[in-house]
Amino acid sequence: MRAILLVDHGSRVDAANAQLGDVAQLVARIAGDGTIVRHAHMELATPSIPEGIDALVREGATEIVVVPYFLAPGRHATSDVPRIASEAASKHPAVNVRVAAPLGVHELLARLVLVRARE
Amino acid sequence: MRAILLVDHGSRVDAANAQLGDVAQLVARIAGDGTIVRHAHMELATPSIPEGIDALVREGATEIVVVPYFLAPGRHATSDVPRIASEAASKHPAVNVRVAAPLGVHELLARLVLVRARE
Hints:
2 copies of one chain form a homodimer.
Chain A: E1 2-8, H1 14-31, E2 35-41, H2 49-58, E3 63-68, H3 75-89, E4 96-99, H4 107-118
Parallel strand pairs in A: 1-2, 1-3, 3-4
Helix pairs in contact in A: 2-3
């Protein structure tokens, strides 16, 4: 079973953490039934990345893509999240865990900027 | 003339600041010739928000939408950027300056997560 774990920094503000759950639900709806989509936070809030990976494995995930929900390829997205994910994945040698690129520069983001500008 | 000023936090890393310029260029291409699109940084890098607004006015902008390039509606996007933009706008009473919502939760972001997950 394919799975996506959407990971942001994590905040002390509950509403900010909840927003990632909303995005994960949107992703799940678009991805369709063949993909489990969950979210986790790098720090400051739960579920943590290891908790998220453990839960996905319990749900039957055999292939997990961790997607850093960060705009820029900074230290968190390119170093901290991959390191934590790799450590957590070592507990599940039968599961293929990889880390995707952060959101970066993409036409979909440019289109969203225009949506917000026109609201 | 309508204009968009895309504003992020600003970084000490040049590549991170340059990336916002790339997004602004994408936005400009999609927006078409009727809209000037420029970028600025809230702090740590130039152009600053006041410099960005001054430059747009010099280019003939009469209506400026400042779009916070932030995923979440945190303090920077909802308080700091609007305050700085408002102070900068007070120098140009003939120009209509408003601040848009940050990127927030949107289907376009969910679709981008899937793009990154599948790469």
